[in-house]
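ingest -> fold -> write
write: protein_1
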Amino acid sequence: MRKRVSLKDIAAELKVSTAVVSYVLNNKHEGRVSEEKAQQIRDVAKRLNYFPDQIAKSLRSDKTMTIGLIIADIANLFYSNIVRYIENSCNKHQYHVIVSSTDENPEKFKELVQVMLNRKVDGMIVAPPKGVEETLMYLRDGQIPFVVIDRFFPEVDAICTVGIDNFQASYDVVRHVAENGYRKPAMVTLNTELYHMQQRAAGFKAGASELLKIAQPQVLHIDEQQLSATIGSAICQLLDNGTDLIYFSTNRIAMEGLAVLVNHQIEVPQQIGIVCFDEADAYKIFYRSITFVQQPLHKIGSMSVDMLIASINGTGSTKNVTLDTQIFAYDTSARRIPKPNKPDDSP
């Protein structure tokens, strides 16, 4: 078995003390070691394939320098992007991230929490499914550092959360389309009990009622497992009802819905306007530039990491951070020009 490279091996090659090597590789060399010597140490460490002994390090510091990240679905564009921002922020703090997905399954979430605890992570960032309130209270009461992102659990108090104002985001969408001349928008969303998605729908209904005076705002709830099979009929139903704009509440719904519009050769925005929640690179292949609601993913990632590490270090406090979204308006919600009245043919 190949011998593990140690600090002594690096120090011996450069004829310096192990303390100097330790300062450099732990980024504590400023004012102690010249940058030229520090670079030599890093170069030798890389050439010798040096890896720090995390077990020994954790025994000395009582920390494993790992964070558990439990999300809903790594295949979802929102979560794959948020993982990247969280990993980047953790790297700045010299933390490593262990990522797992729940697939919106509460039992799987509970199992993953136990796995993370068994791995002795220093804390967790989680996007929990519905039905795990007891697990969140268990973590809170056990004083285990964790931060909830993207989701809100009003039933569980005194926990740290980072997310957006979903109600206001949807309300702002209605304001935007109303200002552009749309009078009968509809929303297509998921059939779910998740609080943040319910707030997203509630904001749309409130905006349609207050700004457009629609007595019964139309919101279609689709089962996520049946999304591909039912989205086509849902869109056709909206078109038959005179809907002039569709607001897709997630990027996954949007991708399915845009495919239907292309397949049915429905002109956007002439026949129907479109607004999507969240952005996606795949939107670029659509024949019109798409209006979307942008979540501040970088802020969600960096703030959740900062809050978690403050909690791990005992310097944090319970915070509920709500961030603003921004609408990027493009072709698919362009100003609607009213059709001219037909001329009176009477003599």
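write: protein_2
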Amino acid sequence: MYVRPTAPLPIGGVVDDAIKLYRESFARCWPIALVGSLIMGTFGVFLTIYVRNAGIGLTGMALLQVYRQPPILALYLLQSVLSLAFYGALIASQNAVALGDTPLSFGEAIAIGFARLGRAVVTGIVWWAIIVLGLVLLLVPGIYFLGALCLWPVALYAEDAGAMQALQYSRDLIKGHWWRSSTILTIAVIIILVFSMVVGLVAGVLAAISRHDFTTAQLMVQVVSIAANVFVLPMIPAVLLAMYRDLQLRREGGDLAARVGALP
């Protein structure tokens, strides 16, 4: 059974807490992750079939031209927005487990994901605009804000914060802990990348054994990815929630220390 930490943890402790939350919440999260994965996978399958029928190569520049076509761009944006709603549903579901509340049903979690989707889209656009602007201008500000604002989905979906409030709350929590938070996120990303590489290798081996053409092999990779994403998608929300709660405890401890120090 998952037990919520009552004191700040070291970096390894936060990662371990995220793993525990992931395991404890997976039984509730996998249906949400499955639907979210199917949405992303369906777009990937459609794009692969479209590219094959259009006789377009699967190179980076060719695909970029495909994404610039209005129908493809519209479908991509629709897929992204729907994925954000299911991402929020994962956060809401895991947060209920983390707090020891009554577990959310599939419908309840999805309802939260879509009820807050409008402000999530606004926050996501502002977040990316800040990061891209920072990267284009001086590079370093973009990297800083990438880490400093990463907790906005938790603030929005777990705390019901407003669009701009979620960004501000993330920055306030991570202020003074940027390197620590970035290290935790980096560890999580490395774990996910290793898992994804293994899945990609397995899919590639299966495609090679079956001796299909390149496009069919890509379709097989998409199908395998749909199954793999059921396990991958809940990982980052669990890490962000563990970071969020740990930083809250650190801030509360700092506020307490400040109040004690101010006593006569």
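write: annotation protein_2
DSSP finds eleven helices and no strands in the chain.
Residues 11-54 form the longest helix (44 residues).
pipeline exit 0
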